[in-house]
Fold this sequence. Notes:
heterodimer; A: alpha+beta; Arc Repressor Mutant, subunit A; three-stranded antiparallel sheet; 3 helices; 42% helix; B: Phosphoenolpyruvate Carboxykinase, domain 3; 2 domains; seven-stranded mixed sheet; five-stranded mixed barrel; 6 helices
Amino acid sequence: xxxxxxILSVAPGVISRESDGELVVVLPxxxxxxxxxxxxxEVFQLLDGQRSLSEIAVVLSERYEVPLExxxxxxxxxxxxxxxxxxxRVSSE
Amino acid sequence: xTEFNWTFAVGGLSLSLAGPAAWVEPFARAWxxxxxxxxxxxxxxxxxxxxxxxxxxxxxxxxxxVDGRCLLxxxxxxxxxxxxxxxxxxxxxxxxxPGDLAYFVRTAxxxxxxxxxxxxxxxxxxxxxxxxxxxFGHSGSGKTTASRLSSGKPVLSDDxxxxxxxxxxxxxxxxxxxxxxxxxxxxSAPLRALLxxxxxxxxxxxxxxxxxxxxxxxxxxxxxxxxxxxxxxxLARWDGVLxxxxxxxxxxxxSNAFWEVIDAQLG
Lengths: 93, 267
């Protein structure tokens, strides 16, 4: 279960491609994929192994003018989904 | 032990099998109509009694990519495909089944096809009114069923087809890899549409979002979707296909009435 202090990065071998405003994330090791919509795609691209989930939530909160708490909830939910699928990994805590 | 060499070609791509007659001759018999004499990749099959007896079918081996080579290793089998050298070599216990050997040949062919700018695609290919429809979906989605329901129409394959670019667009080519025998008269046709199978109580076509289609098509690209090096190019290639042909969900029952829906919307 990720927390807001976690720093996530894209798992090795995972690739992505934008298509019609959505991001297709392919997990070669599993032969599976995840499709992310606009906001999800932005979060995925911010998972650069440098920023914490908390910092990413701040970016989204400011960019979309949504309450920080809402942005944190959304970022954590997406992080959980991506960790479950093996698309990202925790770099450090 | 008698050695035997035999070459076949799919969509203009040749692949030569070399190995014990007992292992190669069954391919020559089963795939006789695919025989060819061109030079192409070489797949060498080697019996190795020092390997442990197979515990499971080779089909369960996941391709692993190391230093540009594709490795398939499970007890009883040690396969290595070297795309740069255009060669592949499988050492297998003598108890290996023909299906195990065919799996390795198919894996080598998937890499050969991709490196020749084509795509081996987990889909059934059915020709209707001189155009090919590629029916895809997860295992059990109905590829074989839909092929069997398409009576009177040439079936290019019920499991794996080759997509090849041409000056006028993408073509679907038959392969010998399916369970159902491919048409001997019709070996290719221009690709008209990609149809994602959905078993349903009625027949209808529904446009499929392109991002979801891209993901599913990549997931249905055997071997290549397991290669971190080729995966980006795989997505780009499928993106190119999706820019030239439409993709739909095909909701269908166990009847051939879905062709009427296809005619009404795409005919």
